[in-house]
Every structure is written in C-alpha cells, then in structure tokens.
Automatic annotation (TrEMBL):
SMART domains tied to this protein: WD40
Domain Roc residue range list: 323-594
Gene3D superfamilies documented for this protein: P-loop containing nucleotide triphosphate hydrolases, Winged helix-like DNA-binding domain superfamily/Winged helix DNA-binding domain, YVTN repeat-like/Quinoprotein amine dehydrogenase
Pfam families in the record: COR-A, Roc, WD40
Gene Ontology molecular-function annotations: ATP binding; kinase activity
Name of this chain's protein: non-specific serine/threonine protein kinase
Length: 1146
C-alpha cells in the first residue's frame, strides 16, 4: 500500500466498494486505481495504470471497473483478478469521462479528442463514435438517453436514433464539467459555479442551485437528493424537490473533483489526495481514505468466483458468436547479405548454442516460436483453443451478472455508419464446435484458471522467416516479404563493414530500400553481428551507418536504447544466457506495436485455420477454405482471412492470378523448398551436381544447361520437384514471372527429347562475361532508344530478370523469323519477329535500343513498355520510374516522355532535355507513330478483325452488358450514360449473337439484372469475363460475384468458367488464343460442324500465361463468331447505345 500522493480525480462506489482514480498533473506518470471495502475501510485493490498515465475517471459495474486516463487510455479492469481485460484504443487525447451502460462502455475525450465513443464490453470494439466538437467533461446515461456536458458550455442529449443531439441546453455560461440523470431529472454543474436542474424528458430548466463559490466539478443524483462537489473544497447536498441546501460538507482541503451517491452513502475525491465517505443523512464525515489503510484480499469482499456451469455457458456463447480473439502472431523476417550471420542471430534469439561453421541457408528457413520463452515450438497450432478459453474467460469476467440467454445478445448492434470493424459481424450464431465435442475438447477448469490471465497484449508467437542471403534468392523476395504483419531484422557483419565499407554499405542500402519498397511502414531492426571480434567498435559502426545511410533519420528503424545506437550489436558466439535479451525485447516491442498483430479477429477465422492445419496438408485448394469458412458463416470473408494469415506469415496466399489464388499453401516451407530446388545458388548446387540420382536419371546435362543458361527441361523440373505438383509449381513460377516458356530449339538436347517443353528461369542468368554478346550488342545499329530510369529510388533486383523472362516468352510466340534471344543477367538481344533490339541494365537504368532496321519500331517499343509494366507490377507497384526517350538525331540528348507528350499536345516546338538545353519536338516524332505509351492498359491495341457473316435476323455479334468504368476503359469504348430503354435493350439482345458480361465489383445493377434475364429468356449464349487484377478498383473476389448475382442466374457464375481479363498489351492476344483453344476443347459441336478450319487461328494465336474461359450455357453456332466477337471487342469497335452497347459486326 502506498499513500495517495496525488489528486483523486474520480470516485465510484458499489454496495461493498469505494473506488478512486488518481494521478499527478506535475509528474504526469503516477496513475492509480484503488478500491476499499466499505465495511471496514480496508484497502482491497491497488493497481498502477499500465500505461503510466494519470487516471482521470472511474466507473464501476459489479466486479468490473473502467478507467479513463491521459493520453487516450481507456481500460476495462477485472477487480477480482486485478487484470486489464480490454484496452480500448481510439481516443486521441485524455479520456475525461467514462460510464457503463449495460454491455457497453461510453467514454468522452478531452480537448484533443472531442468525441464520445461507445464500446462493446466483450469485444472491446468501438461501435459508435459521435464527434461533438468540444471537450467532453462528463457523461451520464438513463435508459436510452445519453447526456454529455461539454466544453462549449452546452449540455447535449442524445438518443440512439441518431448522432444528432435531441436537445442542446445552453443555459450554462461556462464549461459544463458535470452531469447526472435519472427518470425525473437531469442535473448539470459548470464553471459558472451553478448547479442546474432540468425536467426529464422535457429537458426544461426547472431551477438553478446557487451556493458554490467556485467551479462545480461533479454532480450526482440519488432519489430526491442532488449532490455537488466544487473547486471551493466543499460538497453540497440539495433537496431536488425545492432546491433547498440540506448540507454543506466541509473537510476536504482542496478541490473536490468527483462525487458519488449511493443509498445513504456519499463518496468524494479531492485534490487533497484523499477520499472521504460521508453519511448523507447527517452530513458527517465517516471515513477518510488515503491509501495507508490495512490491506485485505478483495475476494473477501467480492465473494465466490464463477461456477463451472457459468464457465461452460460462457464458452458456448463465445464459440457461438465467434467472439473476437487476438491472434498474437507476428512474422519476423530476417534478411541481409550472405553469411552476415542471419541464421546465427535467429539461433541467438532462440537461445540455441552457437554454430561456428557456416551452413548456408537455402531459400528461406521457417522457424516457429513463442516470444515469452523464445523457444522453438514443435507443434504449430492455430491457437484456437487458447483463444476460445480466453474469450470465454473474458465473457465470464465481463458478464457475470447476466444470464446465459442475455449473453447471446451482446455483440455490437449499433455499428454505426463508418463501421469500424467490418469483419466482426455476428448476427448469426454458428456451431463452431459441436455441443458433444465441447465437453471432450475443452477443459472447463482452464477457463476458470484463465480468468486472471486474460490481459490484452498477450504473448506473441513468431514465425521466423530466415531468408538466404545469396543473390539468386532475391527473386523470391517480392513474393514472401509481406507488408503489414511483420518485423524486419536486417543483419550485417560489423567486421565486414569496417573492412570493406563500400561494399557492405551498398548491401545495407539495398536491403533498406527493399524493405521500404515491400513494406513501407514495417519496423526495421538493424543487427550488427561479430561483436566479439576485437576490431569492432560499435560507435565507429554507428558513425558509418549515419554518414552513409542516414540510418538515424529512417523513422522505421528501431533505436537501441543501450548506447544510443541505431542498431543492435550482437555476439552470436556468446554462450551467456542473456546475450540476446535486448534484441528480443526490441523484437517483442516492435511486434506488439503492429496493428495486424493486435488486431481482433473472430474465433470463426481461427476455427477455419484450425481445421486447415488439422488437415495436415502442404496445400489445399482455395475452395476447401471457402467451404470451411462458409460452414462457419464467414464465407464472404475467406479472402480477407487468408490475406490476414498470409501477412502474418502463417500460410501463403497470393491473389494476383487465378493459379496463385486457387491454392492456399498451408506449409510455406514446402513451397519455399520446392522453389529453391530450381533457384539455388552455387553453394547448394555443388551438393546437387554430384547427386547420384541426377546422374542415374540422365539429367546431368540438363542440370548444367540450367545452371549455365537458365534453361530448364521439363524432365529436370520433374526430377527437382520429385514429380510432385509439377503443374502447379510451373504455373506458380510462371505467374510470379520467375519462369517463362522457352519456345526455341535447344541443340544440347538429345534427338529423342527435342520436343520436350523448355523453360527459362531468368533469375539464374549471370551478368555477362560473354564477349560475343557484348560485340553483338555493339553491332546493333540503334534506331529508336528508350530508357527506363529508376534513379529516383532504385532498381530492385528482379525487375530486369522478369522483363527478360517476359520478352523471351513473347519472342517465342512470334512465328516469323523466330530466333532464340541471347541472354545474360544484365543484357540481352531479343527479337520480336522482324524487330531486333538490345536490352541493357546499368545502375538504375534499363536501356532499350531498337535496331535501325526494326520492323514497326514504335509498336515493338510499346509492347516492351507494356512488358516492363507487367514485370514492375509483379515486383512492386509503387516503384517510381521514368520513361526517357533518346533523341534520334543526337545520342547524348534524353527527354522525359511525359514532357515530350505535353509538348506535342500543346504544340510547342522545343522541350527541355534531361541534361541541359532544349530538344526539337519534331525530332521525336518516330516514337509517336503508334499513339500514346503511357497507359497500355487503357489501350489494348488493335487486332485484325475476322469477317464473319451474321445469320439472318441478327445485327450484332455482341451485346455488351452495362459497361462498367473498368470495362469500357480497357476496351476503349466510349463512356456511356443512362440506361437503354427496356425495349431497346431487349431488341438489342435479340438481335445479337451473344450477351457478354464483364464482372466487376458493382456489376449487378438493376439494369444488368434485367439484361441478364432477357438474355436467359432469349437463350443467348452468355459469356462472362472478369476483372483479374486485385489491385484494380473494380476487382472483387469471385465469391462476391456469386453472392451478388440474382438467384435466377447464380448458376452461371463459376470462377473456372469465367475468363480473367488482364490489361496488358502483350497479353491481349493470348486472350484470344486461350479463348480459341477452349472452344476447341469444348464438347460442343458448332452447329454440327467441327472446328472451322477457315479461321486463321494463327492470326490470333499467341500463347499466353493464363486464362481460362468459358461460360457457354448454350450451344454456339460458329467458332468464327467468337473470333469475330473478340476481334471486334478489342478493335474498339463503334459502340452503339447508351449504358448498354451493341458491338456491330466488322
Ligand atoms: N565470431 C562470430 N561469428 C559469427 C557471428 N555471427 C555469425 N558468425 C559466423 O558467421 C558464419 C555465417 O553465419 P550464418 O548465421 O550462417 O550466416 P547467414 O547470414 O545465415 O548466411 P546465409 O544463410 O548463407 O545467407 C558462421 O560461420 C557463423 O558461425 C558472430 O557474432 N561472431
Ligand atoms: Mg542462414
């Protein structure tokens, strides 16, 4: 027990307890909540505020206390166990007032916050926020009326119907610091020294009580008595019926900040650091409490704790509602140069003994741990049971007094407009665990045990991703460095930094940039290893880091309080038990600061994860997860829950394309191991090269070709992947642009394998040491030259390799004049048919030089820029870059593309060049022969149209559904407004061969529903195309389309039958190719004819990386029709109609 040394700002009472919240304005760090037994005045509870802020206000409900502190702190405390049940986060400044209202907590913020917030007690979620625009001095509630006394001199009365006050009372002439309300009256106290009494529910002023000689800080109501406490050091008791002053209570020697009235007992708290209890009848002070009283356990006052039956009920309710749980998981990503000591740092964190020999990590190594003990955890579980216990214990603590039936009703009902927590909806009760299993699976006693351990901010489990440092693995980074759920450790060898400063600094800079690019807000902890080396001086290292990398200015970097450093020096060879303790503490603190880590999720999500992990598979189809989620009424959240678990490093779920999205990798290590069998560096390759099995399989030569030239045979891939999921892994690598088709003759293959599929793994290409390639590049007489300039930030590893990959793919698809590209890691010569060009990377620039005699150079360049955008998007969207044009008349002049486009638009003659001086606009005309370059995604180019006759009675090939913004922009249709009149729409559909629907987020408007019905009635074939880019505004997960589709046509929407659309010039033709091949494979016969050989498929056939299609509900007559359809669509045909458009035959 400690003497109260600070002002008592808030008091509250129950029949048994008196509570006081205190703090110190001067020290600002001494907040306490205390409670005394009323019976004998014993001190039964004492808790320092966990955030070290002064406690301004307290409310009590049974065994629960709510405390508002400075700096936005609002805490729900279980008095019985002295634990913080919930930390309610949201207020931005001091919390000045708090009250309980049934299952809700209502709080008011001070001048920096000016809001009233309503919180759900169980979930801890904010369910309503009212912005009142003034300091909220005090709150009171009676039935459905909420009263707030404000700093703008008003009292406002709210009801649940609206955020707008029902009454605004303006009688006070200064701050209103106090309000109280019951069925008959509402009382306010203000800085004009007056207490005002209003009638309820009229809120008419009844009388003004005068007597206080200074500000009125607090008021209370009990029956016909009014109580007020003031800055004049007195407490006054008034008769509410006539306004008579009954008692003036003298005793406090400083401001009375707070009063409470219950039965015949008055409690007051004062700036004289004491709490007084008074007899309301006599006005006598019966007890003075100052914190020095004898101490007794609170159980003696509160009585027995909950029963097993209550625990069971609480568990059932928590499961049924899918109560919120804090997952408490974090992804710890360890990166840095090869042999920097990354794995050793992980070992230090885990308390493992030093490993003096370097066993280089392959790919990425995952370790799971919990932070409390920093021990490797053997069993990786979802934490579902633990979280269910916690939720149940929380419910028990929060809801003891309520009956089980009420418990089911406690989830937020009033989620307001802004819906702060969209994931958490529990209108439907779900049996997460069957009744019979509950008893078997859960140990009810655990809940009772847990009652005291339900603090928020529990221990955190880490999934440690130890990345290999060798450069070839960087290609994997964009896939596995995640944005929100993780902390980064950038590890470097301090000795290396001191010896080879330039190189080490360059590496560190690369890593800092990479992390900034992939996770712009993630905490970064920089770790310097080899602290044991004699040469190493941490201050010298710090100086180098500050000087060369301005490491001290990077706000994401966690500073090391010991020695005031921007990094954490460590000796990984140390056997001292605590040698990593500072690092551990920094990791834990950074993790708990992450929103994703403390985010509350539903137990339903956890149950989905739990079921998935129980399957004990390396991977499952997305559909499996969807089914599970649907079972637990979270089907519409499948995508979100998977993305969340992905961010926290628990599984791998990528959404960029259908293949990626179609499989959820539950064991990331499985995927990482498979990938790093192909993308391996030379240390690991050595072991493989002499592998018996490889020789026995006759693949030694294949392996050499892969290592030397990045070309893999299918047999080799099968061997490396152990014949497991070869198709998926191939597609995975394709779609993450790690691999592309290699459609060229390979002479090193034996004759009997000449037809085998080949692939290019461009990240294995080494920088050129090939004189021949250099000479060949030099020989190219360059025509148009364009530069992709990244010098504003940096050019991450992998962009160039991906460009090569895509170029090789595209080049292999062109039939005419096909020749294999000549490739190296930093330069290449590629042919797109008759166009030859050179690609070169130097520093932060990529140079693209078309040969002078290139066929259609402007078109080829345009395709290349589109390819680059594809590569950049795969690596990182926000990567800044600029497109420069080299003057055809003077090699030394570079001009920004945007400047040039502007100049042409505004018809000026000259434009500033990147260096000095001006350039003539007309010189650059050859670059603009094929239109604009800036956004190929709005301009998918032109494809020759097939002339396909239409049957009699038909006027159009396609009726294009209500064109959405995204659809029209990608097709280049003109924007249309309004709807077609119903009969025009019906006529249009009747006169069209088919109906085409492009799915985007808000597709199912009434107009589209009508069209769809009309098309169904007319038995028109319906073709569905969907937005496939999750980063576009029109994107929605497929489940959302299905959910939104009208019942009559739901059966049409199956993901595997819709064709994904990608907005890339170089992919446009692949779209047709896929379409045609699907139709070829289709079981339908076309009007009795087989595939119409007259259609020149080659014209359209550009094998692509993707695409599934089709959605043919009805038979189609002619294949040619489809060709025409897409030819027409992509040819930006004249569209006719308003919202709905008909695309005429060519
Ligand atoms: N003396 C000393 N040696 C260290 C320290 N940290 C790591 N080493 C040694 O440095 C070598 C490389 O350490 P690793 O932890 O395997 O390096 P890594 O960064 O994981 O390497 P890759 O996985 O290949 O990228 C090993 O031989 C370690 O024993 C240290 O603090 N002091
Ligand atoms: Mg390692």
């Amino acid at each position: 027990m400690v003497l109260i040394q600070d002002s008592v700002y808030g008091v509250a009472q129950t029949a048994d307890l008196v509570l006081a919240a205190s703090g110190n304005h001067l020290t600002r760090n001494d907040g306490f909540l205390r409670a005394w037994s009323k019976k004998d005045g014993a001190l039964v509870f004492e808790m320092k505020t966990p955030n070290n802020q002064e406690a301004n206000t307290v409310a009590v409900q049974g065994k629960l206390a709510a405390v508002g502190t400075d700096a936005g702190g609002l805490l729900l405390i279980d008095l019985a166990t002295a634990t913080v049940l919930q930390t309610l986060q949201g207020h931005t400044g001091h919390v000045l007032s708090v009250i309980f209202d049934g299952n809700e907590i209502i709080s008011g913020g001070g001048a920096a916050d000016k809001t009233i917030r309503v919180w759900d007690k169980i979930s801890g979620l904010e369910t309503l926020r009212i912005d009142v625009g003034a300091r909220v001095g005090c709150l009171a509630v009676h039935e459905d009326l909420l009263v707030a006394g404000l700093g703008d001199y008003t009292v406002r009365v709210f009801d649940p119907a609206s955020d707008d006050p029902r009454h605004v009372l303006t009688e006070a002439t200064d701050w209103v610091r106090a309000v109280a309300i019951d069925a008959q009256r509402m009382v306010s106290g203000s800085d004009d020294n007056k207490v005002r009494v209003y009638g309820v529910p009229s809120f008419q002023l009844v009388r003004v009580l005068e007597g206080h000689t200074d500000w009125v800080y607090s008021v209370a109501l009990e029956g016909d008595r009014i109580l007020s406490g003031s800055n004049d050091h007195t407490v006054r008791v008034w008769d509410a019926r006539n306004g008579d002053a009954l008692h003036v209570l003298h005793g406090h020697s400083d401001t009375v900040y707070s009063v409470s009235f219950l039965g015949s007992e008055i409690v007051s708290g004062s700036g004289d650091n004491s709490v007084r209890i008074w007899d309301a009848e006599t006005g006598a002070s019966t007890r003075v409490l100052d914190g020095t009283e004898a101490v007794r356990p609170i159980e003696e006052v509160l009585g027995a704790t909950a029963t097993t039956a209550a625990a069971k009920e609480a568990l059932k309710a928590a499961l049924a509602n899918g109560d919120p749980a804090e997952l408490g998981r974090c992804k710890l990503m360890v990166v840095g140069q090869g042999a920097a000591g990354k794995t050793s740092v992980v070992r230090s964190l885990l308390g493992m003994k030093p490993e003096p020999t370097h066993k280089s990590t392959v790919g990425v190594k995952l370790t799971r741990t919990d932070a409390e003990s920093w021990e490797k955890s053997k069993n990786f579980d979802s934490g579902f049971e633990r979280q269910a216990y916690r939720a149940a214990a929380l419910r028990m603590a929060v809801q003891e007094e309520q009956t089980a039936s009420e418990m089911q009703q406690t989830l937020p009902r009033r989620v307001s407009q802004g819906s702060f927590n969209p994931v958490f909806t529990a209108e439907v009760q779900v049996e997460l665990v069957p009744e019979a299993e509950v008893a078997r699976r859960f140990d009810i006693e655990e809940i009772e045990d847990m009652a005291g351990k339900t603090q928020s901010g529990q221990k955190i489990f880490f999934t440690i991703w130890d990345y290999a440092g060798q450069e070839v693995f960087y290609a994997l980074h964009h896939i596995f460095l995640t944005r929100e759920g993780g902390v980064f450790l950038i590890v470097f060898d301090m000795q290396e930094l001191l010896i080879k400063q330039d190189q080490a600094v360059e590496y560190l800079s690369f890593w800092l940039n990479s992390v900034k690019l992939h996770a712009p807000t993630a905490p970064i902890i920089v770790v310097g290893t080899h602290y044991d080396e004699a040469l190493v001086d941490a201050n010298e290292v710090e100086e180098i880091l500050v000087e060369n990398l301005s490491i001290d200015e990077n706000e994401n970097i966690v500073t090391n309080p010991a020695g005031e450093l921007s990094f954490f020096p460590i000796d990984n060879m140390s056997r001292a038990p605590g040698h990593a303790s500072e690092l551990r503490a920094a990791v834990e603190a950074s993790a708990s600061s992450l929103e994703a880590v403390s985010r509350k999720i539903s137990l339903r999500w956890l149950k989905v994860l739990d079921d998935l992990l129980k399957l004990d598979c390396d991977h499952v189809p997305f559909g499996t997860v969807q089914e599970l989620a649907t079972k637990y009424h979270a089907g519409d959240q499948t995508d979100e829950l998977l993305s969340f678990f992905h961010e926290l490093g628990m599984l791998v779920y990528l959404r960029a394309t259908n293949t990626l999205h179609g499989k959820v990798v539950l064991n990331p290590q499985w995927l990482l191991d498979k990938l790093s069998r192909v993308i391996a560096d030379k240390i690991h390759v050595k072991q493989m090269r002499y592998n018996r099995e490889l020789q026995n399989a006759g693949l030694k030569n294949d392996f050499t070709v892969l290592r030397k030239r990045g070309i893999a045979t299918l047999s080799l891939l099968k061997f490396l992947w152990n014949d497991e999921e070869v198709d998926y892994l191939r597609k995975f690598m394709h779609e993450t642009m790690l691999m592309s088709d290699w459609n060229f003759h390979e002479k090193s293959l034996p004759r009997n394998r000449q037809n085998e599929s080949l692939f290019l793994v461009s990240s294995l290409l080494k920088n050129s040491r090939d004189r021949k390639l250099e000479q060949d590049i030099a020989k190219i007489q360059s025509g148009l030259t364009r530069v992709l300039d990244f010098s504003e930030f940096f050019l991450p590893d992998g962009v160039f390799a991906r460009m090569l990959s895509l170029c090789a793919q595209y080049s292999g698809e062109v039939k005419k004049n096909k020749r294999a590209p000549q490739l190296a890691g930093d330069r290449a010569i590629v042919r797109f048919g008759l166009s030859v060009f050179a690609l070169e990377q130097d520093d932060n620039k990529i140079w693209v030089r078309m040969a002078q005699d290139a066929h259609k150079p402007a078109t080829a360049l345009k395709t290349l820029v589109s390819i680059f955008r594809g590569a950049r998007d795969a690596v990182f969207r926000d990567l800044p870059w600029e497109l420069l044009l080299q003057s055809p008349s003077d090699d030394s002049v570079l001009v920004r593309y945007d400047d040039m486009a502007d100049a042409r638009r505004t018809e000026v003659a000259e434009v500033a060049s990147v260096g000095v001086g001006n350039a003539l606009v007309t010189d650059f005309e050859p670059f603009f022969e094929d239109g604009s370059l800036t956004e190929d995604e709005n301009d998918t180019g032109t494809v020759g149209q097939a002339s396909i006759p239409l049957a009699a009675g038909l006027k159009y090939h396609v009726f294009l559904s209500h064109p959405s913004q995204s659809w029209t922009s990608c097709l280049g249709c003109q924007e249309t407004e309004g709807n077609l009149a119903e009969d025009a729409m019906k006529r249009g559909i009747r006169e069209s061969k088919c109906y085409l629907l492009f799915l985007s987020k808000t597709v199912f408007s009434d107009a589209v529903k009508m069209e769809l019905e009309a098309a169904l009635r007319e038995e028109k074939p319906i073709l569905v195309v969907h937005e496939s880019d999750p980063n576009r505004p029109g994107f929605a997960p497929f489940s959302a389309y299905i959910a939104a589709a009208p019942a009559s046509s739901k059966h049409l929407f199956k993901e595997n039958e819709s064709m994904p659309f990608q907005r890339r010039l170089y992919l446009a033709e692949a779209f047709y190719k896929e379409l045609i091949s699907r139709i070829k494979k289709s079981p339908y016969r076309w009007g009795g004819r087989e595939w119409d050989s007259r259609v020149q498929t080659d014209e359209f056939a550009q094998p692509g990386t993707m695409h599934r299609m089709h959605m043919l509900q009805k038979r189609l007559r002619y294949l040619g029709f489809w060709v025409a359809l897409f030819a027409t669509v992509f040819a930006r045909s004249k569209l006719d109609g308003r919202t709905s458009s008909h695309i005429a035959a060519a």
